[in-house]
Amino acid sequence: MLLTSRSLLAAMALTCAAPVAAFAQVSGESAAIQGGYYRVEPLHTQVSFSVLHLGFTVYEGLFSGASGTLILDPRQPESSSLTVSLPIASVQTTSSKLTEELKSDAWLGAAQFPKAEFVSVSVKQTGPNDALVTGNLTLHGITRPETLHVHFIGAGVNMLDKQYTVGFDATGTIKRSEFGIKMFVPYISDEVELRIAGAFERQAVQPASKDQDD
C-alpha cells in the first residue's frame, strides 16, 4: 500500500522521536548531575591550544587520546577531584611538518616526555555551573601549579552508547617558557591559550587500585 504524504510525515516523525527524546534527557543544570566516579571518554575529549604566531595570526593545534578520572560530588564541589593525562605524540596541527617538529626535542620532546598530566588540588565553585580548578600540571618534565576555568555543559545518558555522561568546557593560560619550552619566544608567543572539551562516563564501581586511570 502506498503511503500518503500525511502518513509519510507521521512515519518520519516517529523515526526521529527516539533520538530527540534521548537528547532531551540531557540536563544543563549542575544540580542534576549524578555524583560518583567517572572515567574520561577519550573519543570526545580534546585539548586545543593557540599561540600568537609572529604577531600576525593566532595559530591552533590539538591533543587527543586523553585518559583519567573524575571523582564528582555535586553537593560539595570542593571535595571533587580530577586527574587527566595526554599523550604528547597525539599533537596535531594543519601542517604535517610542524606537527613533527612539535614532537621533537626542540619543542615538546615527545620521546623523553611522553605525557602531560594535570592533577587537581582544589576546586572552588564560582557560580551555579562554574568553578576554578587549581592543580599541578606536569609538562616537558616540569611540574607547576595552574588554574583552569571550568564550565559545566550538560549531563545525562548518551543516546549513542547509553552511558551516563557529564561534559565540561575548561580554559586556561600557561607560559611555555616556564616548562622549558622556549623555542622562538617571543616571536611565537610565550603565552599558550588552552581550551579543553571534557567528557566523562560514570562508572558503576570505583577501583581500589591507586592507578585508577590505567
UniProtKB/TrEMBL annotation:
Name listed for the protein in its UniProt record: YceI family protein
Domain Lipid/polyisoprenoid-binding YceI-like stretches: 37-201
Signal peptide region: 1-24
Keyword Transmembrane: no
Alphabetized UniProt keyword annotations: Signal
Keyword Signal: yes
Pfam families for the chain: YceI
